[in-house]
Hints:
Layout: H1 16-36, E1 48-49, E2 59-64, E3 70-72, E4 75-77, H2 79-92, E5 97-102, H3 108-120, E6 125-128, E7 131-132
Parallel strand pairs: 1-7, 2-5, 5-6
Antiparallel strand pairs: 2-3, 3-4
Amino acid sequence: MTLKAPIQRKRQPDLLPLMDCIFLILFIFFYLMLFLAKYDAIDVDLPNAEQSEQMKEQHVSIGINAEGEFFLVKNKLNIRQLQDELTKKVEEDANVTVLLTSDKNTPFHAVIAVIDIINLLQVSNFAIEVKSD
């Protein structure tokens, strides 16, 4: 009587755990990218608007919080410093877009002061950021 040796099959690596790891890493990457793509501005409660459109070009962001304090890319400035910095930006690029972001509880005179500076510098591209409904 002869005994046959069992047939050896080639073992293939199991790819499911590897695919799970890759999808997990991909998920974490996309999740972190959402947090890294935040806007460089102060935290304000935006007013609502019925009609609004997205801006695509580069812009200078001016923020005004509820206390009427002025910010240029998260740097707190007084009105004179803001005017000087904005003048530099306009001299660098005459077609710069100025984006004004203010809290809905911002004193009106603070908003008017910034708009006055923008008009004084003859900035043609000006927008006010609002929250879409």
